[in-house]
Amino acid sequence: VDHPQLRAIRRHLAETYQVMGRHDDAEGLLIDLADEVSRDGEESLGHFLRLERTWTRIAKGPDPMTLQTIEEQAEDARVAFARRGDEQGLAQVCRVLFHVHLRRGEITETETYAYQEIEHGRLSGSPREELAGPLLLAIALELGPRPVGECIARCEEVIDWRDTFN
């Protein structure tokens, strides 16, 4: 119970639950973690956990929070993460804002957030964030107005896939 890495392990377990589609399990774990963190006064981790829970709720849908509320929460977190130089948190903000604009049907804005997620994800060293950015970009390009050839070129710019198969 008092292991120094328990909180980090539980946070990663919540992320794993999300990937597995076990959103209720992820949300329950995130609520518990957020309660602990708020008692300990860890502001940055609190923002991270709130956004993780928001992300889970977006994935699970429909969310009782308005898109405006989610956007405000993400922007508040962006300020806190930028102040600390938390690249993983900044990548997470971009991922959440990508989905806010996607839900609004603002497809061209999603591309901006995908590129920002790619930048922060690479700097974060977090495998999840490093992989999320290119996926978000592919979604934005697929849904957006760019010609196919340009979409392919943009994907090739961010993914060095040629060396993978040699």
Structural class based on helices, strands and sheet pairing? mainly alpha
Low-confidence stretches: none
Helical percentage: over 70%
Question: What's the helix count?
Answer: 8
**Sheet of most strands:** none
Beta strand %? under 5%
Shape: globular
Query: What's the gyration radius in Å?
Result: 17 Å
Distance between the termini: 46 Å
Number of DSSP strand runs: 0
Average pLDDT across residues?
88
SSE order in H/E notation? HHHHHHHH
Structure description:
This protein has 166 residues and is mainly alpha-helical. It is 80% helix and 0% strand. Helix 3 packs antiparallel against helix 4 and helix 6 packs antiparallel against helix 7.
Question: How would you describe this structure in keywords?
Answer:
80% helix; mainly alpha; 166 residues; 8 helices
What topology emerges from the helices and strands here?
Blueprint: H1 6-19, H2 23-40, H3 43-60, H4 67-84, H5 87-104, H6 107-124, H7 127-143, H8 148-158
Helix pairs in contact: 1-2, 2-3, 3-4, 3-5, 4-5, 5-6, 5-7, 6-7, 7-8
